[in-house]
Amino acid sequence: MPRREGWRDVSDEFWEAVYGYIPKPKKKEYKQGGPPAEPCTLLNGMLYVLHTGCQWKMLPGEYYAGSTTHRYFQRWAEAGVFRKMWIHCLKEYDDMKGIA
User: What's the number of CA atoms in the CB half-sphere (13 Å) around residue 59?
Assistant: First the structure.
């Protein structure tokens, strides 16, 4: 996947640490029997939108369609995925630098 200038996708190390927080896709979430969207690509697309502030429908082509990514974003937010990731990152930072 090509990298956008000034933007980096999540590292393999970070992805391995947070992969367990991602809920399994529901069969209804992909239509016509196609495979579910790749979670790492979805996360990269979500973080791109959150970082740049662009509209979901303007998500670059190397990620999934904005509507697909937004649908997963809403589901993951309801499931507490981003809260779990935040807590994970805080613990890592506390181990490395300490949180006063």
Answer: 21
In angstroms, the CA 7 to CA 24 distance is 27
* pLDDT (tens digit per residue) in 49-77: 999 999 999 999 889 999 999 999 999 99
**Between the CA of residue 85 and those of 5, 34, 65, what are the distances in Å?**
25, 28, 23
Contact 99, 93 (CB under 8 A): yes
Please enumerate in sequence order all residues whose Cβ is within 8 A of that of 83, keeping only pairs 6 or more positions apart, or say none: none
In the chain (100 residues long), the average pLDDT of successive 10-residue segments reads: 61 90 74 77 94 94 92 94 91 77
